[in-house]
Design a protein that fits this description.
Oligomer: single chain
Distance between the termini: 19 Å
Largest sheet: 3 strands, antiparallel
Number of strands: 3
Structural class: alpha+beta
Shape: elongated
Amino acid sequence: MKIKFAAVYEQIPREEGGGYVASVEELPGAITQGDTIEEARENLLDAVRQLLAANRALAKENQTGHKVIHEPLAVSLS
């Protein structure tokens, strides 16, 4: 399944250390950095994967002992 998010890359001035801070608008907590935009992009992909996996594990933990139904959810955004 592929979902599209809005990635944001903020360039840090050289006098403040340089590099980029990367985040995803729709996913609070998905934030990282990199020396180059390419590195920040790779790190952001990893951060999103880890955040989604952690959220899924936490949800499963909270569902223990409860009857739950799982189904795919498709959302179209403009």
